[in-house]
Amino acid sequence: MLRPPSLMVFDLDGTLVDSLGDLERALNLTLAEFRCGPLTPLRIRGMVGDGVGQLVARALEATGCAADPQEAVARYLAHYEADPVARTTVYPGVRATLEAFREEGIPLAVLTNKLSRSTGLVLERLDLARYFSRVVSGDSLAFRKPDPRVLLALLAEFAVSPAASLMVGDSEVDADTARAAGVPFVQMTYGYHRGPLQEIPSAAQLADFAALGAFIAGRAPP
User: Is-catalytic flag, 147?
Assistant: First the structure.
């Protein structure tokens, strides 16, 4: 990995922001409308990462709910986008670290499976949008994570090679995307991974976002 990278790509939920409270709120309000649920935060945590359609489908299956999936997604989005940051917080160290990267002149991008409107609302209302040159959401292209083409398309926009870039995420979905694209991957261990950490391949696993700067500078162990 080049130090510093020519491009840094970040996942959103579970990496930059802790959004579980708002995901839980919107999902359980949706389930309640169909007289289903509720689900605990722990159950919901394991459903996050593959986009809103999969999140809602998994919740319907887990509760045995017979609701129409498309209608349930529409209701979920209405609840979520009404106030997407009511219970969402920026993880410690994120703002200062992103600011430091920006001052170093490193281009920063977001790559998330969240829908564009939801992504934009979260980034704007938490004052994070200003750090990123590009945001690619789950509906921005014809493919999304873990399809490596979504990451490779982003690298192409910046004319950066996979080896010269770095992806930072929290889950197996992020790790799989980076590995398939040939991009070094750093995992934030506080996020929404599903399986054991030791089974997720990465250049480093960090429990503190602020440690990312030291790792890139070559001062932190993997």
Answer: no
* DSSP code per residue over 147-214: SHHHHHHHHHHHT--GGGEEEEESSHHHHHHHHHHT--EEEETTS---S-GGGS--SEEES-TTHHHH
C-alpha Rg value of the chain to the nearest Å: 17
Among candidate residues 11, 170, 174, 176, the one labeled active-site is 11
From the candidate CATH numbers 3.30.420.40, 3.40.50.1000, 3.90.79.10, 1.10.10.60, the one assigned to the domain spanning 7-18+88-216: 3.40.50.1000
With cut-offs at 50, 70 and 90, classify the pLDDT of residue 54.
very high
Dist CA 24 CA 211 (whole Å): 29
Give the phi and the psi of residue 3 in degrees, each rounded to 5. -125, 115
pTM to 2 decimal places? 0.94
